[in-house]
Amino acid sequence: MSENSKTTPFDGAKYRQVLGHFPTGVTVITAMTDDGPAGMAIGSFTSVSLDPALVLFSASKTSASWAKLREAGKFCVNILADDQEDISRVFGSKADDKFSEIGWKRSANGAPLLNGVLAYVDCDLHSVLDGGDHDIILGAVTDLDVKHEGGALVFFRGGYGRVAF
Ligand SMILES: Cc1cc2nc3c(=O)[nH]c(=O)nc-3n(C[C@H](O)[C@H](O)[C@H](O)COP(=O)(O)O)c2cc1C
Predict the structure, then answer these.
(1) Residue with the nearest Cα to atom 19 of ligand 1?
(2) pLDDT confidence of 164, banded at 50, 70, 90?
(3) CATH of domain 12-157
């Protein structure tokens, strides 16, 4: 039995190891708050519905950045390009000022749109569902566009890779 849970017959390391074999793209989800810009790296982003246009991601209930995005009520999903590993590392950390080394401008909804991203998706916060130790966040898409047609940054087995076309 697990050391972590009476109902889960495996431990957290096994869960992370197996699920790490599912490759994901890397996004940075940002929002503008009264205290300035906030953002966090997110690999759990995915599209959900075309009509209405909905996307989702999951965020740890303990994340300080997710609390700020939630308060803002709207956010921008920045889809990282294959040369943006450094940005993923910064936004995957608990650094005080994650925006100090990167250029950005405001997207249509006012959230930070990072320089050099492949594409972005602006959303209003639609709903928040319970997902165990994470919240599952649905976003209603309000604006989106492709910024350039380069390769994508990928996260796989705990490391970074690239998808190039
Ligand atoms: C590639 C990558 C993907 C990540 N995906 C997620 C995710 O889907 N959900 C999540 O809660 N955290 C994810 N994280 C971790 C958060 O980015 C990190 O915990 C957060 O930025 C910590 O800062 P905070 O406590 O200020 O929110 C990911 C990190 C990296 C590097």
Answers:
(1) 92
(2) confident
(3) 2.30.110.10
pTM beyond 0.90, yes or no? yes
Residue 146 has pLDDT above 60, yes or no: yes
- In the reported structure, the alpha carbon of residue 131 is separated from the centroid of ligand 1 by a whole-number distance in angstroms of 15
- List 39's β-bridge partners, or say none: 30
Q: Domains of the chain: which residue ranges? A: 12-157
